[in-house]
Amino acid sequence: MALLKRPNGTEDILPGASSDWQTLEKFLRDTADTFGFSEIRVPTFEQTELFSRGVGETTDVVQKEMYTVSARESTFTLRPEGTAGTIRAILQNGLLNEALPQRVYYILSCFRHERPQAGRLREFHQFGVEMAGSASPAADAEVISLAKQILDQVGVENIELHINSIGCPVCRKKYHEALKAYFAPHREELCETCQERLEKNPMRLLDCKSPICKEIGKDAPEILDYLCEDCSTHFAQLKKNLDLLDISYSVDPRIVRGLDYYTKTVFEFVTTSIGAQGTVCGGGRYDGLIEQLGGPSTPALGFGMGLERLLLVLRNQGVTLGEPKRVDVYFAPMGDAAADKALQLTAMLRREGISAQTDVMGRSLRAQMKYADKIGARFTVVIGDNELAENQAKLKNMQSGEQISVPLDAAFAERFSDIEIADRLAKE
Ligand code: ATP
Ligand code: MG
């Protein structure tokens, strides 16, 4: 029978690579923790309307990329991003009545029907944070500095922070007029989606991936020239805070971000190390979103960081994260009585948190040693009749070849821990 394959644009994370993910995830959790962010876990699928309202009808994500599934009479959408579901959960569970600002983070899978390529998948993972309740630029700086600290400490190089302000509905009104006037003469040349956007949400045109629309938009008016006083003060304050935190940035008036309901600050962390898909993190302020989702008008902001992209960058830069897990002790028994003993010793070590294995294949001693070598066992113990009679065996350090006698009973674990500590110290 033919083997079935995974869907295009999805990935298998194999045992040899999962330690990278585990190390990265632990690091993300720990860092989020130091910034006072707590984890939130939300459903993988939500009502479709949550995303059309929470991401925006005129975005690529909603117009082209959503996976909408039906089961019996209901339809749902697999989350294309984490913000909408998180805000829905914050509202549904009354978290805005608790201490503000609310600071939450998540690590989750997202689903977007895009053309798969390096760093662009149909199922991918995001680490994201959302902070709700603060309108202050200090909150923007805090969220940006969290992303920055992660990228720095994990070892990413050539990372640039690009910031922009896309104003608020007040300044955007005038800006939209200016954009419409600018694009109107090129109407027929624009892609179909952008022709529609020109009426509904002209700023979206600047986010179009089509080379023709990009070229036409080259000299489009810039939002920064249209900011109202409030928005421009906010932007100036943010820049001052970033300076105080020693975070360098460049202002890029082209960033409008893929999602609607962003207001004021938008930012991206871009690396030059993986070519076209260089944006590892994107975020911004979305003061209009909570109200858009039926909640009380509440300022909020956040970011999403693409973990596949981050790992791709790290791999390209030669940064290694986790050591793949190895087996501490492999027991190689010869004969049935020895196998019984090995079974018990293995179970005992595992209860002590020491990773141990023994033969479950009925292999010869030679084949067992080959296996122990393949799985990278750090220590091996051969158990034969003599060892059973003496209730003692040799623990062999597979790297140094050194052998030390160990008792084959309850005292094994303690003796092993001493030996292991000595081995570690010797290596340091
Ligand atoms: P892009 O411009 O690359 O399409 P986006 O604006 O659609 O990105 P966001 O919605 O802001 O991306 O998502 C935040 C982050 O998630 C991105 O910066 C990126 O690192 C990652 N990301 C987005 N789409 C994908 C995807 N299809 N595959 C892998 N990672 C992705
Ligand atoms: Mg996209």
Task: Describe the overall structure.
The chain is α+β, with helices and mostly antiparallel strands and 428 residues long. It folds into two domains: 243 residues, BirA Bifunctional Protein, domain 2 (2-Layer Sandwich), CATH 3.30.930; 97 residues, Rossmann fold. The chain has 15 helices and 16 strands. Helix 1 runs antiparallel to helix 5 and helix 5 packs parallel to helix 9. The protein is elongated and about 90 Å long. Adenosine-5'-triphosphate binds next to strand 6, strand 10, strand 11 and helix 11.
SSE arrangement:
Layout lengths: L14 H20 L3 E2 L5 E2 L1 H7 L5 H6 L2 E4 L2 E5 L4 H10 L9 E10 L11 E10 L4 H18 L4 E7 L3 H15 L8 H9 L10 H6 L12 H16 L5 E2 L11 E9 L7 E7 L3 H4 L7 E7 H10 L12 E5 L2 H16 L4 E3 L6 H10 L4 E5 L1 H6 L1 E6 L5 E5 L4 H16 L1
The structure holds adenosine-5'-triphosphate (ATP) and magnesium ion.
Please describe the structure with a list of short key phrases separated by commas or semicolons.
428 residues; Rossmann fold; 39% helix; binds adenosine-5'-triphosphate; 15 helices; BirA Bifunctional Protein, domain 2
Report the uncertain regions: none
Strand order of the largest sheet: 1-5-6-11-10-9-7-8
Structural domain count: 2
How would you classify the helix and strand content by structural class?
A: alpha+beta
Count every beta strand, where a strand is a DSSP E run of 2 or more residues: 16
Terminal-residue CA separation:
53 Å
Instruction: Characterize the main sheet.
Output: 8 strands, mixed
CATH topology of the largest domain: BirA Bifunctional Protein, domain 2
Number of H- or I-type helical stretches? 15
The proportion of residues forming helix, as a percent range, comes to 25-40%
| Multimerization status | single chain
